[in-house]
């Protein structure tokens, strides 16, 4: 099996012009539908595929897929992250410093759990400045003011209102859904009542402002988007319909439908309203393209036993073990004439290309759909691509 470095026998070293690094920019589409407190990602029920992942959640790296948690003796089939307590005191953030120091001795293994999942979260605040609202607003205050160059609607305090005294609906989108950032101009919000579209808002100006494009208050700015950070600030409390429901969790009082209650996922979620959140992510995929060369008069020998005309015979004489050096290479060159043996030529078939690191450890294998016939006078170049 040819691999890639001429200083090391059968290994061939990639030269400068044999390796290229590229970055692919992708825009994955995300469709989130919310109804009666449940979140559906891309119209799928992920729980059917993996019971350990709640509906509307994404599993980071898709670890432990199709593995069971049934114990076999003292072990399970699930993989877990772990660190060993050492002098560096490296630890998981989920384990407190006191527990780490008191409950674990040097050399003990500290384990975590998979899968690591995430979903969107919706936090609704009224016009009162509570401690919870204050901590969120203060954390994002500088970020909001930084984006005022795009629109004054971002400002923490402006003629459009002060975030502290506004009724807010904050939607947090984890980066696992979009990658590096949310694509500008791709966010679309839809508010349905009994299956009928009551209002729609989107970033039509590509400046982060969510402008209502359908409904009774068309043209109103209902909120802003922080594309790099993954937050949607919905600030409009204007009624968009005469329909009333108990939109607030643990509150039986009915309220008119408005953007303030968009994506309500509380325990007493309304049953007649549903919501759609559409956007595209901006994701970068780093790729490495490698050209592996099989030149003339190279790679025409194989360690496969079928490469020889007969079984390898081993001889033992005293303390010496050696193989029969007279064993011939099998001639598989076909002749144009019946019952005639063609002249011998060394022929091999390349079926795989192995990639090794500088320490000659095998790190990747590229398989060919059909083995390539290699003759001495022929040369080939294999194009390999690897996501990194």
Question: SSE layout and pairings?
Answer:
Elements: E1 19-26, E2 29-35, E3 38-41, H1 46-49, E4 58-59, E5 82-84, H2 97-103, E6 109-111, E7 117-118, E8 121-125, H3 131-146, E9 157-158, E10 161-162, E11 168-172, E12 181-182, E13 188-193, E14 196-202, E15 209-214, E16 221-226, E17 231-234, E18 239-245, E19 255-258, E20 273-294, E21 314-317, E22 320-323, E23 348-356, E24 362-374, E25 380-387
Antiparallel strand pairs: 1-20, 2-3, 2-20, 4-7, 5-6, 8-11, 9-10, 11-17, 12-20, 13-14, 13-20, 14-15, 15-16, 16-17, 18-19, 20-25, 21-22, 23-24
Can you describe this structure?
- This protein is mainly β.
- It folds into two domains: 16-21 and 287-387, no CATH class; 118-285, no CATH class.
- The chain is 7% helix and 37% strand.
- Strands 1, 2, 3, 8, 11, 12, 13, 14, 15, 16, 17, 20 and 25 form a 13-stranded antiparallel β-sheet that branches.
- The two termini are 24 Å apart.
- Residues 5-9 have low confidence and may be disordered.
Order of H and E elements = EEEHEEHEEEHEEEEEEEEEEEEEEEEE
Task: Round the mean pLDDT to the nearest integer and report it.
Answer: 85
Multimerization state? single chain
User: What general outline do the C-alpha atoms trace?
Assistant: elongated
The number of domains is: 2
> How much helix, percentage-wise, in residues?
under 10%
Which value, in Å, is the CA radius of gyration?
A: 32 Å
- Show unreliable segments: 5-9
What's the count of strands? 25
Determine the strand fraction and express it as a percent band.
35-45%
The profile of the biggest β sheet is: 13 strands, antiparallel
Number of discrete helical segments: 3
Distance between the termini: 24 Å
């Amino acid at each position: 099996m040819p691999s890639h470095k001429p200083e090391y026998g059968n290994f061939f070293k990639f030269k400068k012009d044999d390796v290229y690094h590229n970055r692919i920019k992708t825009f994955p589409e995300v469709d989130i539908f919310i109804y009666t407190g449940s979140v559906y990602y891309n119209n799928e029920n992920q729980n059917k595929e993996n019971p350990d992942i709640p509906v509307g959640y994404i599993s980071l790296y898709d670890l432990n897929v199709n593995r069971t948690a049934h114990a076999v003796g003292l072990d399970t089939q699930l993989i877990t992250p772990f660190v060993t307590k050492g002098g560096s005191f490296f630890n998981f953030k989920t384990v407190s410093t006191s527990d780490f120091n008191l409950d674990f001795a040097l050399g003990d293994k500290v384990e975590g759990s998979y899968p690591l999942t995430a979903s969107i979260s919706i936090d609704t605040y009224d016009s009162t400045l509570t401690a919870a609202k204050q901590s969120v607003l203060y954390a994002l205050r500088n970020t909001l003011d930084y984006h005022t160059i795009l629109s004054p609607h971002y400002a923490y305090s402006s003629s459009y209102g002060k975030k502290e005294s506004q009724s807010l609906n904050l939607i947090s989108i984890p980066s696992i859904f979009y990658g590096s950032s949310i694509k500008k101009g791709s966010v679309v919000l839809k508010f349905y009542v009994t299956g009928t579209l009551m209002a729609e808002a989107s970033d039509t100006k590509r400046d982060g402002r969510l402008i209502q494009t359908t409904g009774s208050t068309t043209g109103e700015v209902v909120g802003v988007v922080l594309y790099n950070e993954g937050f949607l600030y919905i600030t409009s409390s204007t009624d968009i319909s005469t329909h009333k429901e108990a939109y607030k969790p643990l509150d039986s009082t009915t309220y008119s439908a408005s953007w303030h209650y968009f994506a309500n996922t509380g325990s007493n979620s309304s049953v007649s309203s549903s919501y759609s959140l559409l956007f595209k992510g901006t994701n970068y995929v780093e790729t490495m393209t490698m050209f592996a060369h099989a030149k003339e008069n190279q790679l025409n020998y194989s360690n496969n036993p079928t490469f020889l005309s007969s079984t390898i015979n081993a001889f033992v004489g005293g303390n010496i073990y050696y193989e029969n050096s007279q064993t011939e290479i099998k001639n598989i060159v076909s002749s144009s004439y019946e019952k005639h043996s063609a002249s011998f030529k060394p022929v091999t078939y390349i079926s795989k290309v192995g990639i090794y690191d500088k320490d000659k450890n095998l790190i990747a294998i590229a398989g060919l759909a059909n083995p390539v016939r290699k003759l001495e006078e022929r040369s080939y170049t294999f194009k390999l691509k690897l996501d990194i």
